[in-house]
Amino acid sequence: MKSENINHAFLDGVIRGDHADVYYHFGVSSDDPILEPLREVRAVVMAGSGGRIKEFAERWSQLHGGSEVVAFPKEDRFVTRYTAGVLFASHGMGMPSASIALQELMRMVFFLKRGDEAALDDVFWARVGTSGGVGLPGGNVVVSTEGLMADLKPYRLLQGGDGEYWFDGTFPASTQDAIIAANADSDIPVVPGKTIAGNEFFLEQYRLDGAICMETPESKRAWLEWIHSHGVRNIEMEGAMLAGYLNHWGFPSFATICATLLNRLEGDQVTATPEQLHQYSENSGVVLFRYLQARLDGEHGEGREGGAR
Ligand code: URA
Predict the structure, then answer these.
(1) Is the CB of 284 under 6 A from ligand 1?
(2) Level-2 CATH architecture, domain 1-122
(3) Phi/psi-derived region of residue 65, left when phi > 0, alpha when psi is between -120 and 50, beta in every other case
(4) pLDDT at 304 over 70
(5) Which atom of ligand 1 is nearest to the CA of 130?
């Protein structure tokens, strides 16, 4: 971990018991007994939708002998479940929403691991979601190599009045390799590639079908071809921030795994049938679960990482 980037001024007092930490958007605080079983957490899995989180937790529980599923009572912002070493949490849509979820989850994991940096190193983080493919049709699964914004620059925020803070959007290569290896014998096409996180589904993804449109067919195609030529394979709305924040603390193992819903070089509207959409979304879940089983349960042996575990 990069200890110097952790907010010790606030978080160490939580570990010492000087004050509690209120994870407001999750409706729990560090002195809430509901968190006690979560001390064993080994992976945090995030997804946009709460329904997906409930399905994931149920499936992970079934794979672990019907392990008890802990549900946080508050669900009006984010839906959270914990079972068998994995904390599943929804993050809503877009970087403002997902950054709130991620910051509170990082604080929570710091508390759960009592600030022990070796224990923090061992926690795997993932976002599983959907995306627009760039040169890839629906049903592919992209494992992000780097998260960038629509201008191919990293995630950044206004900071210190007149400056910007630029985050490092790279995803750990050993984790990407291990995810791909854990899925080597599967029929699902798993592709590594750069991922753009748009601040908007329409404007910052250069769509022509928004209520507001600032592009022409020519400028849209030029942007898509430009990002494709730089190795971008999909577009979603969270990956650049996620990589930036997790790199900031120095977590060694995290990933964004997204199914493509359409090839943006061929259109803007998501016209897949409900059955196709279900299958596409299922694909990303299968890819994640195979890796989780390799990492946490020692299954699909090829998928184990040489690095921190
Ligand atoms: N999610 C996105 O952000 N963009 C798409 O095109 C599809 C899913």
Answers:
(1) no
(2) 3-Layer(aba) Sandwich (3.40)
(3) left
(4) no
(5) 8
pLDDT digits (tens, 9 = 90+) for 15-57: 999 999 999 999 999 999 999 999 999 999 999 999 999 999 9
pLDDT in tens, 240-274: 999 999 999 999 999 999 999 999 999 999 999 99
To the nearest 10°, the Cα dihedral for 16, 5, 123, 22?
Answer: 50
* Cβ atoms 94, 236 nearer than 8 A: no
Number of Cβ atoms within 10 Å of the Cβ of 242: 31
Fold classification of 130-309 (topology level): Rossmann fold (3.40.50)
47 Cβ inside 6 Å of ligand 1: no
Q: Where are the domains of the chain?
A: 1-122, 130-309
pLDDT tens digit sequence for 151-174: 999 999 998 778 999 999 999 999
- Asked if 110 and 9 touch (Cβ cutoff 8 Å), the reply is no
pLDDT confidence of 236, banded at 50, 70, 90?
very high
Ligand 1 centroid to Cα of residue 186, in Å, is 24
Q: Whole-prediction pTM value?
A: 0.97
Atom from ligand 1 closest to the CA of residue 198: 3
Residue 237 CA: which ligand 1 atom is closest? 3
Q: Are 62 and 56 in contact (CB under 8 A)?
A: no
* Domains 1-122 and 130-309 fall in the same CATH topology: yes
User: Cα–Cα distance between 309 and 299 in angstroms, integer?
Assistant: 14
Residue closest via CA to ligand 1's atom 5 equals 132
Does 132 contact ligand 1 (Cβ within 6 A)? yes
Which of 127, 128, 130 for a ligand 1 pocket mutation test, highest count of atoms within 8 Å of Cβ?
130
Q: Which of 127, 144, 205, 227 to mutate to test the pocket of ligand 1 (most atoms within 8 A of CB)?
A: 205
